[in-house]
Amino acid sequence: MAGSDRTPAPPADVCIVGAGPAGAIVAARLAEAGHDVVVLDAGPRYEPENRERQLDAHLRPGMEGPWGTGGERDAYTSSGERHYPLNAARVKGIGGSTLHWQAMVMRLHERDFEMDSRHGVGADWPVDYADLRPYYAAAERELGVAGADDNPFAPPREKPFPLPAFPPSHSDSIFAEACEALGLPTHSVPNARNSEPTDDASACVGYGTCKPVCPSGAKYTAERHVARAETAGARVVDRAPVQRLVHDETAVDAAVYATPDGEQHRQEARAVVLACGGVENVRLLLLSASDAYPDGLANSSGLVGRYFMDHCFAGVGGRIDRPTRQNHVGFNTTECHALYDGTDPLAGVKLEFLNYAGPSPAIDALHADEWGDDLLDSLRDSYGTHLAVGGLVEQFPDADNRITLDRSTTDDHGNPVPDVEWSVGPETRRAIERANEVQRAILEELDADIDWIVGPDETGPAYHHMGTTRMGTDPGSSVVAPDCRAHDLDNLWIAGSSVFPTGGGMNPTLTIAALSCRLADRLDRWL
Amino acid sequence: MNLSRRDALAALAATGVVAGGSVALADDGTDGNVDPADGVPENVIGDDTVAILAAVGSVVYPDATTGIDPFVETYVSGRLSDDPDHRRGVVDAAAELDATARDWFDAPVTELDRSTCDRLLRELGVDAVDPDPEGSLSGRVRFYIVNELLYAFYSSPTGGRLVGIENPVGYPGGTESYRRASMGEETEHGRE
Description:
Number of domains of chain B: 1
CATH class of the largest domain in chain A: Alpha Beta
Radius of gyration of chain B: 17 Å
CATH superfamily of the largest domain in chain A: FAD/NAD(P)-binding domain
Number of strands of chain B: 2
Largest interface: A-B, 51 and 45 residues
Distance between the termini of chain A: 23 Å
Oligomer: heterodimer
Structural class of chain A: alpha/beta
Order of helices and strands of chain A: EHEHEHHEEHEHEEEEHEEEEHHEEEHEEH
Structural class of chain B: mainly alpha
Shape of chain A: globular
CATH topology of the largest domain in chain A: FAD/NAD(P)-binding domain
Helix content of chain A: 10-25%
């Protein structure tokens, strides 16, 4: 629905809350299966023809950011041991956080589903890799993943990637020498961006600004699935934040949503799918508390909001005495999963060889306090020889890391805002230290002058919100069943990374997409 | 280095303006909507404004840069042709900067020598101020004039090559350059 009519549709088969990748994939698949689908999203629709202006907004100081995150609508608090910068970590809009994501899409490894059984940490998933394997293949098709079957550490796969991998960068070839000397095999990176043109979009043209905006459309965003859903007859309503879910003891009857004209509406549906991320899924369930569910909808376990996880960044950067050719593209082309499946460290570590280390002259020039030859000299001095090895490090689930409501602060509709309590546990700190050891060794092998290290004290989140409505077979220790339906209600389903019992160390969106394909299959049968 | 119209069109590509598109200067006619503030068509940029930007360009671009006038004319005209609000900001900031030059130095910006124009900008605090499209004259000159010029230069192969990158951030230079070990030479026929 591209117009401004935001009144409710007649009772639908499915109402999906959130038009990010989880909600949009479910919407497209169910609409194409013939179901009557309504999608409600809190944020606006961003027209693709304005992406160049959004590029300006990203690059040019003095302009508001490209995606309008922040303000009263997005108010939050952060009361945990570490500050959590929530509004840097999400986008509200049609497409959700894929509007600003990096688009790295790896499968979880087999061990990620069995961390409790194998190592006595975290939790087992109620499904294993074999269960998800066909859905991973489907998800790679859905996202148009460019990749190569060259990763000796990756779990088994049966089909090639939909698109060929992006070839390695010049700096990858520099790293390859060092990694070979250290016995660290390197391999390509699966990317949800077009390495070749497709019917959906052009090939990548190298704007170098993937995160936060891809003007060419080569990077996947969930707008593609929204378009598919709408073509199949789904109604997608933007700027329609859901305020609460109206329910009885066994089922959700309707989603109550607000519209920009100050009105509130009820969208009734036979099934409701929550797909608004690991923070807002929780908030909506807690805001929907009732006499039947005084602690929040679907929260008889008391676990809604608990076990909030992210991935922690670890990195080392420096300069070498030859050109490294950074900042031509905004994505990575080589990784190393050699540290991922072992026990030193136990938490999963994925190493990333950055193609965007060090400053970009284009950006530095706009912030400089000099110009003319002085500026040119400074830019020449600062650009050209930087290298960096980053990495994602797993966090094990910790019940004290959680999302709650801060009732002392309200958003633009008078609702309590989310509060994020986040800390970094000892296993993750040890894994970051181990990652730093290896990263430092790689740069030392290249005789680099090391400029910076992001270790356990400096680490920050990678903006992957996981774990807050965890999946399991026991209603006492999980929120949703293995089919992603809430234990407590017959017709409430939850899509996205909030259902992950553990998060591994891989970027979560391919797993989100795989679970969404699976959820759509289950819900199709249920309908 | 000598800037060319081709360089300006490459710079425009970084902003999403189609090369060879609707470049309109004051003498190109009066089609289109007229800005009620100055009676000038919204897709037109006046010669005076272009000349002021070119004069500032001679300060903020490296000393050896030549061909600034046609570069700025082509870039600015193309860049502003479909963005009336931004165009208004550029025109206003240029006019106010010019008025300040006349007030402080008894001459328009276009008649200041390079060092005096540099002094004008620094005394306004343009080197240190945060760019602000809604702010003081200094912030607006930084946003609409200085950063507009620097963006055109360093977000395109034109300025990028001087620093060592032919496909800088913001420029859609393809997916081959990141794989190469060096820039290679740029010729009229492309990279060699």
